[in-house]
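ESCALATION

Customer reports they have been waiting on this structure for their group meeting. Please prioritize. Original submission:
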Amino acid sequence: MKILSSRSCRSLTLFSLIAVLVFIGCQKEGKTSQNKKITVLTPVTFEKTIQAHHGHILIVNFFATWCEPCRKELPDIISLSKEYASKGVDVIGISLDKNGTRVLRSFLERLKFPYPIYLGNQALMDTLKIQAIPMTYFYDRKGTRVKTLLGIVGRKRLSSLIKALLKVPSS
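Update from on-call: job pushed to the front of the queue and completed.
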């Protein structure tokens, strides 16, 4: 039986610690081949994300890659995000996929989202009481949620809601 020196033990401990930290980091976020990070949103980071868009109209779309109604509405949301971006309308997507970044990466590359996509966790779903998707939140320029829609939101209705929010004066 070979006994390790104290230096070897320290090296092994340091290596193990680094391996654990790398593993934990990989669980929290991944990178797409486009070098975009997929950040996990918790209830706290969700609120910070909403606050970061203060002064803009914000649309938050909750979806999953396996959800057929979600996949059906995403092209309209993507198109409208491009159309209204220059008018102060921001869009973010939050995937609620249980398999995390593994399934989300290829989906993002296929659809070429022009807006940030985050990964929601169970704590976020519980806090926001999300029980079905697709779900879309609309925030005014003050960061107040003014509308929640469950189910597919067609292009015409999305556009109408955005135009109505754009008419509300910012103060």
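Sent to customer with the following note: The first strand starts at residue 29 and ends at 31.
Escalation resolved.
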